[in-house]
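User: Okay, second chain of the day. Same drill as before: sequence in, structure tokens out.
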Amino acid sequence: MLIIAQHGEIFIILACLFGFFMAWGVGANDVANAMGTSVGSKAITIKQAILIAVIFEFLGAWLAGGEVTATIRGGMLDPVLLEENPQLLVYGMLSALLAAAIWLLIASARGWPVSTTHSIVGAIVGFGAVGLGVEAVAWGKVGQIASSWLISPLLAGSIGFVLFKSVQYLIFENSDPLAAAKRYVPGYVFLVGFIVSMVTLTKGLSHVGLDLSFGQSLMLSVVIGIAIMGLGVIMQRRIKFEQNASDHFGYANVERVFGVLMIFTACAMAFAHGSNDVANAVGPLAAVISVVRSDGVIDSAALVPWWVLVLGGAGIVVGLVTYGHKVIATVGTGITELTPSRGFAATLAAATTVVLASGTGLPISTTHTLVGAVLGVGLARGMAALNLRVIGTIAMSWLITLPAGAGLAILFFFMFKGMFG
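Assistant: Same drill. Structure tokens below.
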């Protein structure tokens, strides 16, 4: 208690700095989940992607980023073991933030799309196991997260494969692809509106006091889906279709229709991502602020001050603007060649997987989900459409994430313990 009273202000300043650094990492690495397919398919330019993401990621983080964030991240640590030495939680959360942020800096510089959730979870598990004892870590929870590495990419890949095959069959293999696109695309617009509304409602807005049940979210998403389908039909009528002698089947015009869809999915996924993943940066930060302000009392659910969410949102935006383009390039062009129709199938598959996971309580990584979806869409065109070297590098970076986060966190934990202990 004495240590917390003595160094309280220093702890809060360090937590804010490291929290901002971690949010920067989320922006630099994870925003590719929302933007990679849109940029890779050339539906929007990198400048437009950054503008959309800056607005919607920040709004998502600020409006829906979490009034209440569980400080002992997702039940990863036993709070009873921390009550006697609350300063250990402060050292641990500071070291977890710094460790995860440094790993995200390394991964972003290399253009590797890694999971920010797994980075912070690995860091918390690392300091918990070494600093508090192996029994302090909820290993069942860790095993559940590890199983999601395999489940989420497989599920998203399968959905992406089926979705793109349906687009191929219904539209591209039709005798009049443009007429078929006009007929079927409103149905896909409804699907996008419905699925992305479900992502936002089930994952994003419970913290704003809009705590809807799964059934209520379902009904509201159907209404939003119908409204967006109407908007999509209006936008579709405004598209100027071009006659091109070399494009006998009108495929370019079909892709133009899907390009409109991609703009919407980019906005909505950015909002849902900002609301969901800002917790990776502000959760440990909120834990430190809560322990310091309550003079060492550990509360498993701490109120996050509004300025902390603004700090997290600002960090995400700065990360995206400074370094985001590298991971966007990997997801958008490195794995397989994307067009608006393929990018749409991948984004919708990823969003669907997120909804299914939220409904069933399966912990998943949005990064793993989106990469899996892009892989599925590439596979629908055959193995030759995939860049196996890039896929191998991504798989390696995923395997390293947990131990890298854990190793760095252990190092920083003992450093902080030595400095203040």
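The chain is about 80% helix and 0% strand.

User: Thanks, on to the next one.
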